[in-house]
Amino acid sequence: MLEVERVTHKLRMGKVGNDGKEWRSHMDQTKKYHEAVKSSLPEVRFKLERLSEDVSKALEKIGKKEQVLTRSFQGMTGDYRAHSDNLKEIQGNYSKVSKNVQDLENELMEVNEKLTRTQDKIDDTGKSFSDNAPLQNIKKSITNVKNDIKSIDIRIGVVSNTLL
């Protein structure tokens, strides 16, 4: 509401003179513009004609130069088309080869992963075969049993000697 009050004075329209003379002022103003255009028409027409001639000459020069350039570069455009077609073919071959290389790289990665897993299995198996700890424990146990048997044999001998 405050905004409306603030701009109300800007929204009011001034009194328009409706006394019937407004059309006459428009007519007078139109006559003045007509006279101004009529007086400047010959000078403007001359300038426009000269400008038109200059533009026509420039267009003719451009057309001639374009023809010269077309004739001089005509052989090169055929070469350019041939090179462009060759480039497209090479790019197509490159994309096929790069896709093939990518596929082969993926296959190589899979084979390397399998090789690594297989090597790890072989290493684990080799370690278990070369691990002598269980065998050493068995040899010690056999030695202990032999020593126990000897000591038992000695005791048996002593006891049988004392009994006899």
Give the helix level as a range of percent: over 70%
Q: Give me the count of strands.
A: 0
Largest beta-sheet characterization: none
Class from helix and strand fractions:
mainly alpha
Q: Calculate the mean pLDDT score and round it.
A: 87
List unreliable stretches of 5+ residues.
Answer: none
Q: Which geometry do the CA atoms define?
A: elongated
Order of helices and strands: HHH
C-alpha-based Rg, rounded: 57 Å
- Subunit organisation of the chains: single chain
Number of helices: 3
Distance between the amino and carboxyl termini: 138 Å
What percent of residues are in strands? under 5%
Word description of this protein:
With 164 residues, this protein is mainly alpha-helical. Helix content is 91%, strand content 0%. The longest helix has 109 residues, at 22-130.
What is the topological layout?
Layout: H1 2-11, H2 22-130, H3 133-163
Spell out the key features of this protein:
single chain, 164 residues, mainly alpha, 3 helices, 0% strand
Q: Could you give a short description of this structure?
A:
The protein is mainly alpha-helical and 164 residues long.
